[in-house]
Specification:
It contains 9 helices and 9 strands. By secondary structure, it is of the alpha/beta class. It has a domain of 140 residues: TIM Barrel (Alpha-Beta Barrel), CATH 3.20.20. The strands form 2 sheets. The chain has a 6-stranded parallel β-sheet with strand order 5-4-3-2-1-9. It has a 3-stranded parallel β-sheet with strand order 6-7-8. The chain is globular, with a radius of gyration of 16 Å. It starts with 8 loop residues before the first strand and ends in a 5-residue tail after the last helix. 44% of the residues are buried.
C-alpha cells in the first residue's frame, strides 16, 4: 500500500532527546497515526529512529529532511522504513531510487514534479506547502499532472488539513502540531495521543 494511504496525517517530529522517542511513538500509534517521520535535524534523530524501529513494531518509522546519499544509508541502517526529502536534486533522486525503501521526494514547482514523474516517481512531498502556494497551487496542479499525488507539509494546521485532504491529488498531509515541544519536554504522552486521535479522525471537507 502507498505511504499516502496509511493515515490522513503524518506526524513530522523533531526529537531532541532519544529517550522520548519510544513513548512518543507509542502515543502516536495509540492515537491512530502509525506513520511517523523523524526529521534528521538533531543529533538524536538516528538513535530515535533505531529505538522506535526496535521497540514499536506497529509504527511505520521514517526519516525526514533527507538531503544526501549519506543521510539515506544512515537512515536505512537505523531502521527507517521510508525516506522524505525537502527537495530533490538529480543525484538525490538517483540515491533515493536505489535505497530499497519507499520515499517521498520533495517538490515545490510543476517543473520539479514533472522531472520526478519522468523518472516514474508519482508520489511526492509538496514542501513548503503554505509558503509555496498552498491549496490554490496544489489544486492548479491536479489538472495538468493528474498522475502525481502529494503529501503537502509545511504550515498546515488542523483547521486547514481537511481542505488539503479534499484535493484529488492529495493522499495525506504532514503535520508538526501533533508533537508540541512542551509536551515532549514534560512527557505529556496523553496529550500527544489525544492530538493524534483528533488528526486520525480528520476527513476531507
Amino acid at each position: 500500500m502507498s505511504l499516502l494511504d496509511l493515515a490522513p496525517v503524518v506526524p513530522v517530529v523533531v526529537i531532541e532527546d532519544a529517550a522520548t522517542a519510544v513513548p512518543l511513538a507509542r502515543a502516536l500509534v495509540a492515537g491512530g497515526l502509525p506513520v511517523i517521520e523523524v526529521t534528521l535535524r538533531t543529533a538524536a534523530a538516528l538513535e530515535s529512529i533505531a529505538r522506535i524501529a526496535d521497540e514499536v513494531p506497529d509504527a511505520v518509522i521514517g526519516a525526514g529532511t533527507v538531503r544526501t546519499p549519506a543521510d539515506i544509508s544512515a537512515s536505512v541502517k537505523a531502521g527507517a522504513r521510508f525516506l522524505v526529502s525537502p527537495g530533490t536534486t538529480p543525484a538525490l533522486a538517483d540515491a533515493l531510487t536505489g535505497a530499497g525503501v519507499p520515499f517521498l521526494p520533495g517538490a515545490a514547482t510543476a517543473s520539479e514534479a514533472m522531472a520526478l514523474a519522468e523518472r516514474g516517481i508519482g508520489e511526492l512531498k509538496f514542501f513548503p506547502a503554505e509558503a509555496a502556494g498552498g491549496l490554490p497551487y496544489l489544486k492548479s496542479l491536479a489538472g495538468p499532472l493528474p498522475d502525481v499525488r502529494f503529501c503537502p507539509t509545511g504550515g498546515i494546521k488542523p483547521a486547514t488539513a481537511p481542505d488539503y485532504l479534499a484535493l484529488p491529488n492529495v493522499g495525506c498531509v504532514g503535520g508538526t502540531w501533533l508533537t508540541p515541544a512542551d509536551a515532549l519536554a514534560t512527557g505529556d504522552w496523553a496529550r500527544v495521543e489525544k492530538l493524534a486521535a483528533e488528526a486520525a479522525a480528520l476527513r476531507p471537507r
